[in-house]
Specification:
Elements lengths: L8 H19 L5 H8 L3 H13 L42 E6 L5 E6 L2 H14 L1
Antiparallel strand pairs: 1-2
Length: about 130
């Protein structure tokens, strides 16, 4: 192994052959990968990592004999790219909100008035005070 932690080409070829042999052994075992790895004394997570490497480098051959090469061997699907839509922003007039005013008088009478907003409330109160 090099000082930077990378494998030399010879080491990579040896490791690839080793892991390819382990995967071929597993395919005929009838065991789960975890069980086979435990029985043979290797790490199942490392086996999956090496399977990705073998697929990426075109060394992986499926059980039916078809070789898997290059990008077609990727395990994970890429997410669709984010797309933006053009929009037009326009000033819109502010809608005047109406208010519902409910009056309950001491004598039991009730009234509901729809007024144009807080500005009209003063007018309504003025009319009610004058009528009283």
């Amino acid at each position: 192994m090099k000082e930077d932690g990378m494998l030399t080409l010879e080491q990579r070829a040896t490791m690839s052959a080793t892991w390819l042999g382990r995967w071929r052994g597993w395919q005929g075992s009838g065991l789960s990968v975890a069980e086979y790895a435990r029985r043979e004394g290797f790490d199942a997570d490392a086996a999956y990592r090496w399977r990705r490497v073998l697929r990426r480098t075109g060394q992986w051959i499926e059980a039916d004999g078809t070789p898997v090469v290059g990008k077609a061997a990727r395990v994970k699907k890429r997410k669709a790219a984010v797309r933006f839509a053009r929009v037009a922003v326009k000033d819109t007039p502010v809608a005047t909100a109406s208010m519902c005013l409910r009056l309950v008088l001491k004598n039991g009478r009730r009234a509901e008035l729809e007024i144009g907003g807080v500005a009209h409330l003063g007018e309504v109160l003025g009319v009610l005070e004058r009528a009283a």
